[in-house]
Amino acid sequence: MTGKLGIGIAGTGSILAYHAEALARLADVALRALAGRDAAKAKALAARYGFERAVDGFEALIARDDVDAVVIATPDDTHADLAMAAIRAGKHVLVQKPLAPDADSCFRLIEAADAARVDLQASFMHRHFPETIRALELVRAGEIGRIETMRLRNATPGPDWADWFFRKDRNPGGVVQQLGVHGVDLALLFGGPIASVRATAAIQRPTRTLADGRAVRVETPDSAWAVYGFASDAKGAHEMSMIEASGTDRFRLELHGETGVIWLRGDPGPLAMRSAGDSAWRLPDLPPASMGEVHHRSWIDGILDRAPRSASARDALAGLRVMAAILESASHAGCEVTIPE
Asked: What does the DSSP 8-state code read for residue 309?
C-alpha cells in the first residue's frame, strides 16, 4: 500500500462519531466513504466528519478500490453478513460489538479472515481507555496480588432512538448482547477464561417509550445478573441493566486481589487503588487521551504491520460463549452452565 490507508464506514447511527472523529485525527488514514440507508443523512454526515464522499449502500462501499479497511457500525443483526462480505472483498474489518450473533458465526468469520489474510477486529472500546490500560499494567505487575473476586456493572437508561434494541428477532440477547458484552470482555481481559456461569435475567420494564413518542413492547431481557467462575478459581459478579435512570459511566469495575484492590470508574475517580493497610485511595496518573484515538491507532498500526494485531476477534469468540452461557443459565432458573476450554 502506498499513501494513506483508505477507510470506509457503514452506518450513520450514534456510534459513528466515535469512529469517525478518532480516525480523522490520524495522519496516515483517509476517510474515503460513508454508507448509510438514508442517502441524505449519509451525505450530511459525510460532510460533517470529513469523508470524501457518501456512497449508496454497503456493496458500493466495499467495491471501492480506494477503501482498504471498513468499520461496520450498523445494527447488531447485520454485523456478521456485512463483515463476511467485506472480508470476501479483501478489506480489513473493524466490527462494532457483538461481532456476530453466536460463537459459530464468529468462528466462521475468523476462519474467513485468516484465509483472506485480512485483519478482523471486534470494537471493544472500553479496553482502550487509559484507566483500563493502566489497571491492566498494575495487575500484571502484581500490585494487588492474585485477583480473587471482581464486581462489574454495565448500566444505562437504555436506548430510546430505535425499536430494534427491544425486538427478539433483532437483539435476542437483550441487555446481555448490548451492554453485558462489554463487561464480559473486561472480565476476560483481567480475569482470564471463564469456566462457569450462573445467571438470571428479566424484563423489568415491559413497555418503553422512544424519543419519537412510540411505545414499544420489550421482548428481551432489560436486566441481567451473572456470577462467573474463572478457570483461575477467582469469582466475579456482573450486573447489567438498560433501565437505570443514572446508570454507570460506561462501566464500573472492582478488582479485589490478595494484597489490594483496584477500582475503575468508581466514586474515587477513573482509576483508584488501595493496598492492605492504606488509609486512603491512591490515584495513579493517567496519560491524556482523545476519545477513541488509542483504540483506532492500535487498529491501524496492526494493519500497517507497525505493531502486533490485536486478538480481539478471538476474544469476541470467547465472549460470545460466555454470553450464550448467561442466557442459557437464565433460561434454566440459574443452573450452572460450564464453558468448555
From this structure: P
Outline where 145-290 has alpha helix (H): 174-175, 181-191
Give me Rg for the CA atoms of the chain. 20
| Beta carbons of 139 and 250 less than 8 angstroms apart | no
The SS3 call for residue 305 is coil
Q: Which residues face 253 on adjacent strands?
A: 152, 264
Q: State the pairing for strand pair 53-55/69-72.
A: unpaired
**Beta carbons of 77 and 102 less than 8 angstroms apart:** no
Q: Per residue in 264-289, pLDDT tens?
A: 999 999 999 999 889 899 999 998 87
pLDDT score for 2:
57
What is the DSSP pairing of strand 29-35 with strand 53-55? parallel
Q: How many residues does the chain have?
A: 341
11: Cβ contacts below 8 Å, ≥ 6 apart: 35, 36, 71, 72, 73, 74, 96
CB burial string 22-61: b at 16+ within 10 A, e below: bbbebeebbbbbbbbeeeeebbebbeebebebbbeebeeb
| C-alpha to C-alpha distance for 197 and 337, rounded to whole angstroms | 5
**How high is the pLDDT of residue 277?**
85
Q: Where are the alpha helices (DSSP H) in the chain?
A: 16-24, 39-49, 58-62, 79-88, 103-116, 130-140, 174-175, 181-191, 293-303, 312-331
Q: What pLDDT is stored for residue 288 in this prediction?
A: 83
- Cα–Cα distances in angstroms (integers) from residue 211 to residues 73, 74, 154, 243, 271, in the given order: 21, 19, 22, 15, 34
Q: What is the pLDDT of residue 341?
A: 83
pLDDT in tens, 196-228: 999 999 999 999 999 999 999 999 999 999 999
Q: 322 and 328 in contact (C-beta within 8 Å)?
A: no
Nearest Cα to 238, choosing from 281, 271, 201? Answer: 201
Which residues of the chain fall short of a pLDDT of 70?
Answer: 1-2
With cell 460532510, the residue in question is: 47
| Dist CA 74 CA 34 (whole Å) | 12
Between CA 199 and CA 131 the distance in angstroms is 28
